[in-house]
Design brief:
heterodimer, A: alpha/beta, six-stranded parallel β-sheet, four-stranded mixed β-sheet, 5 helices, 12 strands, B: alpha/beta, elongated
Chain lengths: ~170, ~450
């Protein structure tokens, strides 16, 4: 197996990944995450305000249990819903990103089709670095989301929400 | 000779286009610098590491590819090998005809599909491909070609886009980029909903896990690879990384070097098709591994160019690219990267002028996240181009060398020389038609010497 032999087989030595990065978590992970998430263009909301943002929402199964009692109207069509609500598999303090694994209780389209994406992040799922987050990938497909959809294709002017959601809200629980 | 092709294009280029390209390139280079400083503790060490990983990949490409294929198949991805553009086009066309008869297929931005001119082949086979990246969508509507590997319509103004959209009936004329993006979103939504095949490129393929990694900012790539029933991914054989743990640093370097972001908005990790327990995602994922000259480059003097991760930083920083624009290079890969990759893949005869479209200032090598020695490669290519050129004009000098090889041949040659004016053969007349042989005055030296002794 080439892979097993990788460090020795290589004629050039390979620095262990991550060794040259990034981040000394002096501040708490939550503080760091909040700072980065805002930097990337996201916004924070309280759980009670979710309904005001997207009354008709396409909600993942695992997020729905958290949203019970909020009075949300649950849409069955991600293409028509005003908002998509998901539960983060983990969140990355280094980059302000959300990792969403695909799985039986989740839809890939929920965080993609509606114009607004609300992601619920349990505080204990915030990890320090991208390296740590990607160890959670396991054998599933996944998407790492860093800020709202954007383009700068027309004269370099930044426009949000060209294909994916133009607004990204996080709710820490 | 052909050196002036790029230069001529630059001279003919309108000043507004030049200005736009210069402004956008300079901006991207300054955000790159800021990003690498701000987001990486030691960007030099990161580049060194990335260069080493890629060098390792190239040194062990054959074995790694075999393992990668095995892992992909294990995860449910169907793998196809394509030795050249024709083979790749045939596989993709066949998949589109099988799964999407009569329905347009959606395409995410992919330089590999540009390289094999996939759209032309699909159209010729009766399939309608629709580009969904905003820039590529505009270029396609205008029957234009992308001029930059990351920002494809850097050469177009917002007024150009506004006119194209109004002409194509996307909505009322407006020069507001936000409105224009909304018009594109609205039009492409319907296409995404009905599409049955989505085509994309691949940024990284991980050997260890058989994971395909795709990065983007708009979301069209996710939609193209998630909404349709079949996802077809085209990937150059050099774009693999050994381990999942190599991804974080490559993702940081790619985003930082190309657009100055900490990470791109979406990083898509594809590990096989939709599982039976999942609610959405494609039922089939097909991966086409494209050679198209790469294995030849791997065994030649320009192999280091195969480390490239297509960030576009060398374009943005290049003084020649900034003046000439991507279209001047007459190839899908432009800038310093294209000036090496195009002749390396397709032969120097096709692209004699490209290695000369550089001032060898070294800026490209300085910004390259995988430390490709681009100026050295350009110099080697110049050498090759020069040799190829000389080889063509060598005939008269060979004759001279033969004639001066012995005293007898020389003296026969001298006797025959006056006849050279009347050479019958057209190839030889080419030499004399531009040159006047002087008329002989007095005796020849050899005769005089002979008589004297």
């Amino acid at each position: 197996m080439i892979l097993a032999a990788l460090p020795d087989a290589s004629p050039s030595s390979i620095v262990p990944p991550g060794s040259s990065t990034v981040l000394r978590p002096i501040l708490s992970l939550e503080t760091l995450f909040r700072d980065r998430f805002l930097f990337q263009g996201g916004q924070f909301i309280e759980k009670g305000d979710i309904t005001a943002i997207g009354r008709s929402a396409y909600v993942d199964e695992d997020a729905w249990t958290i949203c019970l009692g909020l009075g949300l109207e649950r849409s069955g069509d991600p293409w028509e819903a005003a908002a998509g609500i998901t539960l983060a598999s983990c969140a990355v303090a280094e980059t302000g990103s959300i990792l969403e694994l695909s799985g039986p209780e989740r839809s890939r389209l929920a965080s993609l089709c509606p114009p607004i994406h609300v992601v619920i992040i349990p505080r204990d799922r915030i990890v320090a670095t991208l390296d740590e987050a990607l160890t959670h990938l396991a054998d599933r497909s996944a998407v790492l989301i860093t800020g709202p959809s954007r383009t700068a294709d027309i004269e370099g002017v930044m426009v949000r929400g060209v294909h994916g959601p133009g607004k990204l809200y996080a709710c820490l629980t | 000779m052909s050196e002036p092709a790029v230069e001529q294009f630059a001279q003919d280029l309108g000043s507004p286009v030049k200005g736009a390209i210069h402004k956008a390139s300079a901006l991207k280079i300054s955000s790159r610098k800021k990003a690498l400083k701000e987001f990486l503790e030691d960007s030099e060490a990161a580049r060194e590491y990335a260069a080493n990983v890629k060098a390792y990949v190239l040194d062990n490409l054959k074995e790694l590819l075999v393992q990668f294929e095995t892992k992909c198949i294990e995860s449910g991805i169907q793998v196809h090998w394509a030795k050249d553009a024709g083979a790749a086009n045939a596989v993709i066309t066949d998949l589109c005809q099988r799964y999407s008869p009569g329905v347009a297929v959606v395409k995410a931005k992919s330089m590999a599909t540009e390289e094999i001119h996939l759209n032309d082949h699909l159209v010729a086979s009766g399939i309608e491909p629709i580009e969904t990246d905003l820039g590529e969508f505009v270029a396609q509507l205008d029957h234009d070609l992308p001029s930059h590997i990351v920002t494809p319509i850097i050469h177009k103004s917002r007024d150009d886009v506004a006119k194209i959209f109004a002409r194509e009936g996307l909505g009322p004329y407006t020069t507001d980029p936000e409105e224009l993006a909304l018009q594109a979103r609205t039009r492409l939504r319907e296409v995404f909903k009905s599409a049955r095949v989505g085509i994309s490129g691949v940024n990284f393929g991980v050997v260890e896990s058989g994971r395909l990694v795709l990065v983007e900012n708009e979301g069209n790539n996710r939609l193209s690879t998630t909404a349709p029933e079949v996802h077809v991914a085209l990937m150059g054989i050099e774009k693999i990384l050994p381990r999942d743990s190599d991804l974080p640093m490559f993702l940081r370097l790619l985003a930082g070097s190309s657009t100055g972001q900490q990470l791109t908005v979406y990083t898509h990790f594809i590990r096989g098709p939709r599982r039976p327990d999942e609610r959405d995602g494609p039922n089939e994922v097909h991966l086409i591994l494209l050679d198209n000259g790469r294995s030849k480059v791997l065994n030649g003097p320009y192999r280091d160019i195969l480390r490239c991760i297509r960030c576009g930083a060398c374009l943005n920083v290049c003084p020649v690219y900034r003046q000439a624009s991507g279209h001047a290079y007459k190839h899908v890969y432009s800038g310093p990267l294209g000036a090496v990759l195009a002749p390396a893949l397709e032969g120097i005869d096709q692209h004699k002028d490209l290695p000369f479209a550089s001032s060898l200032c070294g800026a490209c090598e300085e910004v390259c996240p995988v430390k490709i020695p681009i100026p050295d490669l350009l110099l080697s290519l110049r050498h090759e181009a020069q040799r190829a050129r000389l080889a063509k004009n060598l005939a008269p000098w060979k004759m001279f060398a033969f004639g001066s090889g012995s005293a007898f041949r020389w003296s026969v040659g001298l006797t025959l020389l006056p006849l050279a004016r009347h050479l019958p053969h057209p190839a030889l007349r080419g030499w004399t038609v531009e040159r006047e042989l002087p008329s002989k005055i007095g005796r020849d030296f050899r005769g005089w010497w002979h008589d004297r002794s």
